[in-house]
Specification:
Bound molecules: cytidine-5'-triphosphate
Number of domains: 2
CATH architecture of the largest domain: 3-Layer(aba) Sandwich
Distance between the termini: 28 Å
Radius of gyration: 23 Å
Number of strands: 21
Largest sheet: 8 strands, mixed
CATH topology of the largest domain: Rossmann fold
CATH class of the largest domain: Alpha Beta
Structural class: alpha/beta
Strand content: 15-25%
Number of helices: 14
Helix content: 25-40%
Shape: globular
């Protein structure tokens, strides 16, 4: 599926660099040519010999390598590729890119290129979460750089959290999506999904029955049409798809923050079942049974993420889509909700228990726009997702 595609793979320095060897194999399995570049720090983790042996060609290492300069200048090297992939992308490489430094081969290639760039960041959790890295990430995104991962999990340094290099298969999927000539190629789409959990105390929370299945299916469908998908998901019971940038959150407030950080986007789709309230009196200790009677909980309203984004003066996505889960008067309620929220479309569904939709395989939706209500036949959630993704592609194409 990547036949005739040339991928320039920049391997940064980090313990995850060993995974780039598997990435080379998997890209070749897809028919791609991999042109490898190894940073000086990368050489501390993988040897030039193993990289060039796997790639089947010499590895580029030095900005002032005269032989390479004679055969192919660094500018041409960066431009002859269909895609530049940085894996692992270290905090240092990201900082250089965000600030336009060009003091070694990798940073020079990244500054000189006019081809799309995909980063697979990998670093210590604290480094990833540091405001400087997050600032650089926001700058790079605004420059049109795509990102896959990082994943969350236990790390070589013994800490736990986001910072692990995405799995090679997920990077391959992101590359396929980036190079796919689908109608959403070059479009960035933000998608919320899953339930939110609002803590009562460290062991109890308020939740809802959303499985995240419809949102996840939509993420896959948008990815398959070539979109760069930022998938902000609450604690769903289905796994997020590969090849999308997954931002896991727990509460509505965290979801709102993640959405704000992920903008700008060409379209934003809000499929999450966000809790309307949070417990303001949440305890940091487990609540105990007491002779003094039952605990009393105080609630506060959560930010309405859809409404906030739909009303943005600056940076409103071109298409804003909400979902409406209703149990009665579906079209009437959802039509009113579209106006109340200020979004362009509402995808309404009937979640009364008799339908078996919430947590089930199928969905029956009505698409509500300014043109009216259009009911789709009941179909499985993947089919609903593909149809909705097609519609989004058509709407963005029509808007130019
Ligand atoms: N939504 C959101 N942030 C919230 C609440 C809802 O982004 N705090 C989004 C959902 O993702 C969905 C849409 O708003 O796309 C509709 O959510 P819903 O809960 O059905 O609407 P409400 O405004 O809460 O209306 P009601 O509960 O009265 O039906």
């Amino acid at each position: 599926m990547l036949a005739n595609k040339r991928i320039l793979l920049i391997i940064g320095g980090g313990i995850a660099a060993y995974k780039s060897l598997e990435l080379i194999r998997r890209l070749q399995d897809q028919g791609a040519e991999v042109v490898p570049v190894l940073t000086q720090a990368g050489e501390a983790f993988v040897t030039p010999l193993s990289v060039s042996a796997l790639a089947g060609q010499a590895v580029h290492r030095d900005l002032f390598d005269l032989t390479a300069e004679a055969e192919m200048g660094h500018i041409q090297l960066s431009r002859s590729a269909d895609l530049l992939v940085v894996a692992p992308a270290t905090a240092d490489l990201m900082a250089k890119m965000a600030n336009g430094h060009a003091n070694d081969l990798a940073s020079t290639l990244l500054l000189a290129t006019d081809t799309p760039v995909l980063l697979a960041p990998a670093m210590n959790v604290r480094m990833w979460e540091h405001p400087a890295t997050q600032r650089n990430l926001a700058t790079l995104r605004a420059d049109g750089v795509a990102c896959v991962g990082p994943d969350e999990g236990s790390m070589a340094c013994g800490e736990f959290g986001p910072g692990r290099l995405a799995e090679p298969e997920a990077i391959v999927q992101a590359i396929l999506a980036k190079l796919a000539d689908g109608p959403l190629k070059g479009r960035r789409i933000l998608l919320t999904s899953g339930p939110t959990h609002e803590p009562i105390d460290p062991v109890r929370y308020i939740a809802n029955r959303s499985s995240g299945a419809q949102g996840t299916a939509l993420a896959r469908a948008l990815r398959d049409l070539g979109a760069e998908v930022v998938f902000v998901t609450g604690p769903a019971s289905v796994a997020p798809p590969d090849g999308v940038q997954t931002v896991p959150v727990e509460t509505a407030q965290q979801m709102a923050d993640a959405v704000a950080a992920a903008l700008p986007a060409d379209a934003a789709v809000f499929a999450a079942a966000v809790a309307d309230w949070r417990v303001t009196s949440a305890s940091d200790r487990k609540l105990k049974k007491s002779k003094d009677g039952l605990p009393v909980m105080e609630f506060a309203e959560n930010p309405d993420i859809l409404k906030t984004v739909a009303h943005l003066d600056k940076g409103r996505p071109g298409l804003v889509v909400g979902f409406a889960a209703e149990t009665n008067d579906v079209v009437e309620n959802a039509t009113a909700k579209r106006l109340r929220k200020g979004c362009d479309w509402i995808v309404a569904n009937d979640v009364s228990p008799a339908t078996g939709i919430m947590g089930g395989r199928e969905n029956a939706v009505t698409l509500i726009s300014e043109d009216g209500a259009e009911s789709w036949p009941r179909m499985d959630k993947d089919a609903v997702a593909r149809k909705l993704a097609d519609r989004i592609a058509q709407a963005l194409a029509a808007a130019g």
